[in-house]
Amino acid sequence: MAHGHHKEQTSEQPKAIIDPVCNKVVEVDEGYGKLHDGELYRFCSKECLDKFDVDPVKYVTKTDATGALK
Ligand SMILES: [Zn+2]
């Protein structure tokens, strides 16, 4: 049986990601991850993830160069 404990390359520095819901810094190895619109977001807690799930658009503020809101 495969153990599947894959050792990852450490050449890439793990980057902390900002939780878009509460703006807390979430380390890559903690919290919850969610792939939305091709981007990976991280959340400090299930609560934040749930909030995001309800209304992602509210939290995903793409800084558009044009500033045009659809
Ligand atoms: Zn949070």
UniProtKB/TrEMBL annotation:
Domain of life: Bacteria
UniProt xrefs under Gene3D superfamilies: Ribonucleotide Reductase, subunit A (1.10.620.20)
SMART domains from the UniProt entry: TRASH
Pfam families per record: YHS
GO MF assignments: oxidoreductase activity
InterPro entries: Ferritin-like_SF, RNR-like, TRASH_dom, YHS_dom
Membrane-spanning intervals of the chain: none
Boundaries of every TRASH domain copy: 19-56
Record-given protein name: YHS domain-containing protein
